[in-house]
TrEMBL record:
CDD domains per record: LPOR_like_SDR_c_like
Top-level enzyme category: oxidoreductase
Record's keyword annotation contains Isomerase: no
Annotated Pfam families: adh_short (PF00106)
Lineage: Eukaryota, Viridiplantae, Streptophyta, Embryophyta, Tracheophyta
Pathway assigned to this chain's UniProt record: Porphyrin-containing compound metabolism; chlorophyll biosynthesis
Name of the protein described by the UniProt record: NADPH-protochlorophyllide oxidoreductase
Family: Belongs to the short-chain dehydrogenases/reductases (SDR) family. POR subfamily.
A biological-process GO annotation: chlorophyll biosynthetic process
Function of the protein: Phototransformation of protochlorophyllide (Pchlide) to chlorophyllide (Chlide).
Amino acid sequence: MALQAAAILPSALSILKEGKSKDSTFLGISLSDHVKSDSIYTSLRIKRESKQRKFAIRPIRAQAVVEAPEVNQAAPAGKKTLRQGSVVVTGASSGLGLATAKALAETGKWHVIMACRDFLKAERAAKSAGMAKENYTIMHLDLASLDSVRQFVDNFRRSGRPLDVLVCNAAVYLPTAKEPTFTAEGFELSVGTNHLGHFLLSRLLLDDLKQSDYPSKRLIIVGSITGNTNTLAGNVPPKANLGDLRGLAGGLNGLNTSSMIDGGEFDGAKAYKDSKVCNMLTMQEFHRRYHEETGITFASLYPGCIATTGLFREHIPLFRLLFPPFQKYITKGFVSEEESGKRLAQVVSDPSLTKSGVYWSWNKDSASFENQLSQEASDAEKARKVWEVSEKLVGLA
Ligand SMILES: NC(=O)c1ccc[n+]([C@@H]2O[C@H](COP(=O)([O-])OP(=O)(O)OC[C@H]3O[C@@H](n4cnc5c(N)ncnc54)[C@H](OP(=O)(O)O)[C@@H]3O)[C@@H](O)[C@H]2O)c1
């Protein structure tokens, strides 16, 4: 289990430990300052003065490869077969998103719209995964820009494709960052990308999902064990905690308000965990507001510890070297990208996973089960507040 990593890895690495440093953790795993690469810090330490210059760059023009939408095919017996489903997967250029896109595309039953910020990277990834050209389309989406999110929605609508399932998967994780970095609109990058970008995207695309005639329409927001303080992993500092949302309400800009949701000092690992709590709360708020009226299934999941993905790209080299074998051979919580992709593909398309408002997990035999969220990640009042504050920040209220 991934949560065991939280308990074991620190002691496994204790020889290198110099003292706890809140900004060098994953699942609360601390590594010593003296093993951190200076060059990593130098490149990561983006000063507030350079923020505007760096993040004021407008998103590149959206690129879309648009193909004709699928139509219902008549089966030989004259009966209509189910048309190909149309699924948008954000962050499908690597890791879980790519593995999910591949798993869905190779069934031939799904056309995957890979919503990615790097068009060429996504194209190369799809090719090297062996995805057949007719089963995917790449469209530009940068979740760290609300303009880009709106442009993506326009482009998607212009493509004429139906939307049957939306998967909010993309994320950034900045555990070693000393200073916050920001989205185009000036929100702290982790919460701005993982939560606010997806919040706007899913709110705008809800209308498209409603219009779908597909038998099972779904909106899936990827969660994480690390945001759940009812687990060992979620209990290792820095713990997720949204507090009274004072930082979020202030816009997370780090100028006249904190860059952290709870109003505290910047901590990249905590910002990621907080963003995941927002993801899980948003899914439940969607369920409460729209499931009955629309029939859409809203779900979240913890795909397992996929220790090899690019999510850990900003972590120190030693961590990246040791984390996969540690998960494989010590905690045995390791999940391959392929397996995690199958899990998420199940949540997209398995007829037995239509229950709404659920946070799915998998046991060691890879069987799915409804998992319990922590108190904060299932707090209905907090979910309502996060929803309302987020609406204001993304310009929907
Ligand atoms: N790995 C794990 O153990 C684990 C565990 C629990 C949950 N998760 C969740 O799984 C999901 C996928 O993570 P992963 O492990 O597969 O990591 P990953 O390989 O780094 O994938 C993240 C994806 O998000 C994309 N992305 C980042 N910023 C973006 C932006 N501004 N706009 C659009 N796309 C953006 C990345 O695009 P680029 O390729 O252009 O960088 C990449 O495709 C995340 O929601 C994560 O929280 C992962």
